[in-house]
Design brief:
The protein has about 210 residues and is an all-alpha fold. The protein has one domain (about 5-205): Orthogonal Bundle (Tetracycline Repressor, domain 2). It contains nine helices and no strands. It has helices spanning about 5-30, 40-45, 50, 60-85, 90-105, 110-120, 125-150, 160-180, 185-205.
Length: about 210
């Protein structure tokens, strides 16, 4: 009894903390760093602001944990796919990575593009975390495209153009795919998005 109660309390606290972090990610994507307040987070998670301080001592501590959770959630999945597809053709590697990326944007972390790509000013410490995540993310795709170019699987002449085209399609088209209400249309839109990404990357920078 005495060992189970603290364990239950700890699990409950961890679930509550994860909920706070998840809601903070959503608010950061909508409002940006400067417009997010602890009052907003407390209201969104239906807890009193003083209770929030039992979990996080400051807004910056909370934001740092939110960015870390988002980075881990995205990169763990992409790195797992990359590892699992090593040895396959570079086209298959890119297709698998792009599919996983789209699934992330459509599912667990739709905010990733907004937070790491499109928002304006952040405090230096958080901006460095965002840039670090973006570099890790880009390097996975950059390496696959580079090797595919060297191997003749991709005909694109400009690696960076291909990379930016890939990310632009993913981050923008995912918003349109999420608006599909018919499951069949959603699957078709998802498939068409990946097929288009593959064609664009293969020819980026060519005449």
């Amino acid at each position: 009894m005495t060992t189970e109660a603290p364990s239950r309390l700890s699990r409950r606290r961890d679930r509550r903390k994860a909920e706070i972090v998840r809601e903070t990610i959503r608010l950061l994507a909508i409002n940006g760093y400067h417009a997010v307040s602890l009052e907003q987070v407390a209201e969104a998670t239906d807890i009193a602001k003083p209770t929030l301080y039992h979990y996080f001592s400051s807004k910056d501590e909370l934001v740092a944990e939110a960015l870390d959770a988002l980075t881990s959630g995205v990169m763990d999945r992409l790195e797992a796919i990359h590892t699992a597809t090593l040895g396959e053709s570079y086209r298959d590697q890119l297709r698998a990575l792009s599919t996983e990326h789209l699934d992330i944007l459509l599912g667990e972390y739709p905010e990733v593009g907004l937070i790491f790509s499109f928002q304006g000013s952040w405090p230096e410490v958080h901006d460095q975390a965002r840039k670090s995540m973006r570099r890790r993310h880009d390097e996975i795709f950059r390496n696959v495209i580079r090797e595919g170019m060297a191997n003749g699987e991709f005909l694109c002449e400009d690696l960076e153009v291909a990379l930016q085209c890939h990310h632009a399609i993913m981050n923008n088209v995912s918003s349109w795919v999420r608006q599909q209400t018919d499951p069949v249309a959603t699957v078709a839109a998802r498939t068409a998005t990946i097929n288009t990404v593959m064609r664009v990357v293969a020819a980026a920078g060519t005449d």
